[in-house]
Specification:
This protein is mainly alpha-helical and 141 residues long. The chain contains four helices and two strands, in the order αααββα. Helix 1 packs across helix 3 and helix 3 packs antiparallel against helix 4.
């Protein structure tokens, strides 16, 4: 277990919503509906009276947390030697570009690609201009 929670690995602890906030309440509602065996289409439908941006943000963060858990279970089996290419089957190869270190699409081993991707997503989720955590702090459209 010590290896799973190593901060230098791709696995990251879940992002949490502060108890008492609107996002925390929306997260609890989303979890309850997803765990109840309800139709998924109905489960992700915007509840009456809720802000669409908050509802989407809750699901994006939840999806990110779930992907982290899944990747955390397989990352030790996918090394630079065993997964030298980030691919989606034999026809698709994913290349990394971030306009900073990688200015052009660059082929990377799958673990390196996934680490960069998860770091990038985490930066986006933590960006208050994209995912504000306080009510009324949304970026104006």
């Amino acid at each position: 277990l010590k290896q799973v929670f190593n901060k230098d690995k791709t696995f990251r602890p879940k992002r949490k919503f502060e108890p008492g906030t609107q996002r925390f309440e929306l997260h609890k509602r989303a979890q309850a509906s997803l765990n109840s065996g309800v139709d998924l289409k109905a489960a992700v439908q915007l509840p009456s009276g809720e802000d669409q941006n908050d509802w989407v943000a809750v699901h994006v963060v939840d999806f990110f947390n779930r992907i982290n858990l899944i990747y955390g279970t397989i990352c030790e089996f996918c090394t630079e030697r065993t997964c030298p290419v980030m691919s989606g089957g034999p026809k698709y190869e994913y290349r990394w570009q971030d306009d900073m270190k990688y200015k052009k699409p660059t082929a990377l081993p799958a673990p390196q690609y996934m680490n960069l991707l998860m770091d990038w997503i985490e930066v986006q989720i933590n960006n208050e201009n994209i995912f504000p955590t306080s009510v009324g702090k949304c970026e104006e459209e």
